[in-house]
Design goal:
- The chain is mostly beta strands.
- It has one domain (10-167): Trefoil (Acidic Fibroblast Growth Factor, subunit A) (Trefoil), CATH 2.80.10.
- Helices cover 0% and strands 42% of the residues.
- The protein has a six-stranded antiparallel beta sheet, with no helix packed on it. A three-stranded antiparallel beta sheet has the order 4-5-13, with no helix packed on it.
- The chain is globular, with a radius of gyration of 14 Å.
- The two termini are 13 Å apart.
- 38% of the residues are buried.
- Residues 31-97 form the Ricin B lectin domain.
- This is Carbohydrate-binding module family 13 protein.
- InterPro entries: Ricin_B-like_lectins, Ricin_B_lectin.
- Pfam families: RicinB_lectin_2.
Length: 168
């Protein structure tokens, strides 16, 4: 799927599967060696490892788009469980994984050397929620200010919880 003149979105390299509870989950094929940018629908900002730092608990934030495909905004989506379609998100700049040390609403997403699994659940065609495995919490970007930390929030169908995955 390609928007006119735009980059390929994630759905062109994936297979959708209906999982438990009728949720559609994204089964990534070949995602282990490809890089994606993850764009928030409400703000237009991208998932960004703050300053590309690899330090433990470095915040994952929203930031304006850039053409830096291998930097702070580049993410490898790696399938870890093909049965349940769980993935990890590994930043290309810092080499750390997106992680939620505390799975509590309002707590921030950070970078970590420790992997954590997430579900990519289709909200509508080409738009996904990033859900913490085993929890009813989603990645949420509250506003468009550069450096706003991505935090966990219960599903509310807002565009702040919706993400487009763009193959680079």
């Amino acid at each position: 799927m390609t928007s006119s003149g735009g980059p390929d979105v994630f759905a062109c390299d994936s297979e959708l599967k209906v999982g438990a509870g009728g949720h559609t989950r994204l089964m990534v094929s070949g995602g282990n060696d490809k890089t994606y940018k993850i764009k928030n629908v409400a703000t237009g900002n991208y998932l960004d490892m703050y300053n590309g730092f690899s330090s433990e608990n470095n915040p994952v934030v929203g930031w304006q788009g850039s053409n830096n495909i291998s930097g702070n905004q580049g993410w490898h989506i790696v399938v870890r469980d093909t049965t349940n379609h769980y993935v990890t998100l590994k930043n290309t700049a810092g080499g750390t994984y997106a992680r939620t040390p505390e799975t509590v609403a309002g707590k921030g997403v950070v970078g970590s050397s420790t992997m954590q699994q997430f579900e990519l659940i289709e909200f509508e065609t080409g738009v996904y929620n990033i859900k913490v495995k085993g929890e009813d919490l989603l990645f949420n970007l509250a506003d468009s200010s550069d450096g706003t930390q991505v935090k966990l929030k219960a599903a509310d169908d807002s565009k702040n919880q919706q993400w487009v995955l763009i193959l680079l």
